[in-house]
């Protein structure tokens, strides 16, 4: 295969973020007014998934700049680019409702059609199937629209809720890395979960 052919392995580029809908949810680009809601579930304290995030968490007074950077992630074109979607409950008429979490897509390698996904949901909505519904829509974007061959998710292995979500999506656990991330001045483990295009289509036809 020539180098030119190899660089086009991910066929859906460039991609501009647009709204995605499911039966109960709306996934749309983050907006400035989402900051307060996002801070309500992106905290280390409590029992939420956010305490296992593999990146720095900011308090409200320090969060505006990093949130603005996340809000600006609306286009996939080159390796390292990302998208971040707010996840809303749809209203009775199919309109917008309250934000219950957010989901991300990062372009790991366009040449090898590799994409990474991630998610954070408010603990108040756990156990209702919202995360699974939103994640399936995100994987369909990765495979159907972007043309991904392989999608991965990197988790703190203590994050049992996200590990169960990966299982429900058909993602296999491929590796456990010891003290691979420095988070809030502490070394933590990470696990890689992954699914291939053909595996996703077999499970979610």
Helix-strand layout with pairing:
Elements: H1 3-6, E1 15-16, E2 20-21, E3 25-29, H2 35-41, H3 64-71, E4 75-76, E5 82-89, E6 99-109, E7 114-121, H4 130-145, E8 150-155, H5 160-169, E9 172-183, E10 186-196, H6 197-203
Head-to-tail CA distance between termini: 30 Å
Rg on CA atoms, Å: 17 Å
Query: What is the helix fraction of residues, given as a range?
Result: 25-40%
Name given to the CATH homologous superfamily: Gcn5-related N-acetyltransferase (GNAT)
**How many individual β-strands?**
10
Strand percentage: 25-35%
Helices and strands, in order, run as HEEEHHEEEEHEHEEH
Please indicate the count of domains: 1
Average residue pLDDT: 85
Structural class, by secondary structure, is alpha+beta
pLDDT < 50 stretches: 1-6, 57-62
- CATH architectural grouping: 3-Layer(aba) Sandwich
Strand order of the largest sheet: 2-3-5-6-7-8-10-9
Please work out how many helical segments DSSP would assign. Answer: 6
Predict the CATH topology: Aminopeptidase
Taking the sheet with the most strands, its summary is:
8 strands, mixed
Specify the CATH class. Answer: Alpha Beta
The 3D shape can be described as: globular
